[in-house]
Amino acid sequence: MKVKASVFRDVRISDYDYGLPDSRIAKYPLNKRDESKLLVYRGGKITDARFSGLPEYLPDGSLMIFNNTKVIQARLHFRKATGAQIEIFCLEPHFPNDYQLNFRQTRRCSWVCLVGNLKKWKEGDLVKELDVNGQPVAFKARRIQTNGDFHAVEFEWNDPDITFSELLEIAGELPVPPYLNRDAEEQDKQAYQTVYSKIEGSVAAPTAGLHFTPEVFDSLAGKGIKTAEVTLHVGAGTFRPVKTEKVKDHVMHSEFISVTKEVIEQLLDHKGKIIAVGTTSVRTLESLYCMGQILEKEDSPIEPGVSQWQPYECGADKDLSVKEALSNIIKYLDRNDLESLVAETRMIIAPGYVYRIVDGIITNFHQPGSTLLLLVSAFVAGNDPECGNWKTIYKHALDNGYRFLSYGDSSLLLKE
């Protein structure tokens, strides 16, 4: 079934607003992750449960896809000689532009950043004196390029035995969401990471995964539920509210994704339902379908990626099956002797979008008027953009004591 962008481009963001009292925003996590509430939405019916009981609500033979990204301590604070404090929020690598290579740099690297109190930093270097294992280290920052609200900042330090990753651990602060209205605390270093986080790069946690515990994974295995991992590094766009009146005017941020050939083959061979853990996994999986269309030709681009509107424009001449799309990715990887598909996606999912790969979503309750709420609405509404099922779900959550946003409770959304 072909999706037409015109179906939802005129969707008004105000139609996806709702009243969220500050008292319903979870400012801190529960002591035990899997004791959170779980709202199960299936076939138009809602069931209240505990997250620890998740396995009993999943279809038999499901494959669950997790995002194994790890949140970095991306906020850096520098103080000028005048006393002015400058905050540098690292978003994504600038040079080297590969995450892992950048994190391994010694002496120098650069990042695309947001800068707080920019008016106080007209020029010159910022310097932060650090104590690293009893040795003084001078950590410097300088702006080298500006593009709108974003700035390329070069970092330099005088100890060749220290990597940039280690410097972030020492000097950085975990970027907890601004709607918590509090500074990061020591407990957040563990609480704001999933138990399966591995690959450094995100500036926000894939929060649906925060509910999982070793005990839940044991229960999933006991029911025969299979699992696999992908990587999507969450960007600052997660924190940015939609300020436009209509979806068509909103500009999506770019996010890095990496999926191994083994996982794509697993998706290709799987016969049961595919459950995405979090909206980041959703965007990764649905981006794969579009990339499968792009990579159908042997002269396809060496570095594939998905633009904001591409899912509604590519493959206009025919509608590929999921099997065909995933097979095209495997052929592309084989042609180029690659073991992983590495790309960027700016994909937006809004009411009217037809899901291709994802059969179920585990996700938290999102901010009013956010692109994440649009994604959820698109899933529960199917191909009817006028459907208001998300309102039923969110009203039930508000009326029944569910906690909202990053540290809040979650939902399991199933198509049938």
Give the DSSP E fraction (strand runs of 2 or more residues).
25-35%
Uncertain runs are none
Cα(first) to Cα(last) distance is: 19 Å
Computed Rg? 22 Å
Helices, by number, come to: 9
- The number of E-state strands comes to 18
Q: Could you say which structural class the secondary elements and strand pairing correspond to?
A: alpha/beta
CATH superfamily of the largest domain: QueA-like
Largest sheet report: 10 strands, mixed
Q: What is the architecture of the largest domain at the second tier of CATH? A: 3-Layer(aba) Sandwich
Q: What is the helical fraction, as a range of percent? A: 10-25%
Gross morphology: globular
Succession of helices and strands:
EEEEEEHEEEEHHEHEEHEHEHEEHHE
User: What is the CATH class of the largest domain?
Assistant: Alpha Beta
- Overall number of domains: 2
Strand order of the largest sheet: 2-1-18-17-14-3-12-13-16-15
Account of the 3D structure:
This protein is α/β, with parallel strands linked by helices and 416 residues long. It has 2 domains: 5-70 and 190-414, QueA-like; 74-173, no CATH class. It contains 9 helices and 18 strands. The protein has helices at residues 99-103, 164-171, 188-191, 214-222, 261-269, 279-294, 322-335, 371-381, 389-399, and strands spanning 37-42, 45-50, 63-67, 69-71, 75-79, 85-95, 108-116, 126-132, 135-147, 150-157, 199-202, 226-233, 255-260, 274-277, 305-306, 340-345, 360-364, 410-414. The strands form 3 sheets. It has a 10-stranded mixed beta sheet with strand order 2-1-18-17-14-3-12-13-16-15, with helices on one face. A 6-stranded antiparallel beta sheet has the order 5-6-7-10-9-8, with helices on one face. The chain has a two-stranded parallel ribbon with strand order 4-11. Strand 9 and strand 10 form a beta hairpin.
